[in-house]
Amino acid sequence: MKIETERLFLREFLLDDTSSMAAYWRDPRYQRFYEQTKDIDTVVGELVSRFVAAQTSQPRVSWQLALIERASGCMIGNCGIRINDPALKEANIGYELNPDYWGRGYATEAARAIVTFGFEELGLHRVWAECVADNTSSARVLEKLGMRCEAHFREHQWYRARWWDTLIYAMLDREWHAGSHIRDPSSPVDTTFHSG
Is the overall model pTM greater than 0.85, yes or no? Predict the structure, then answer.
């Protein structure tokens, strides 16, 4: 499967993507909101292997896609959607971006594409996301999608020798179809899906 947006291709992961992903995971800017990882190569290798294995799962419930900048052909991050409960038609999204590409609207463009896929192709009822409250840039991405903050969990996670608050954002299918996601007119909304 591949999703095309104005500036990005979101495509299935390949095992060869491991080195590109590990490179930006090593960046201290990226690591700021995550637990410290001692062996990044091993952890990223295991993650990418899981992403690749999920492509052939039946029924498929997880789509973690590599973000490719169309202009350069470089992998700049990844974005995914995971069905939590097929009966409830609920899924969560996540995204990450190489810090060298922060501040250009790529995270919003990718997240909008994966949420569009969830509502329009998978027929979901509810899509949600969790982010660390200190990560205001990630929260802004979710707000630009039209998601609402449904919960603020105080001191919900412990790592890097401190407690972290987390936020839960969500959107319903009727809100998506009513156009709640078109809050940021500067962000591209045209998305093309290719299966197979």
Answer: yes
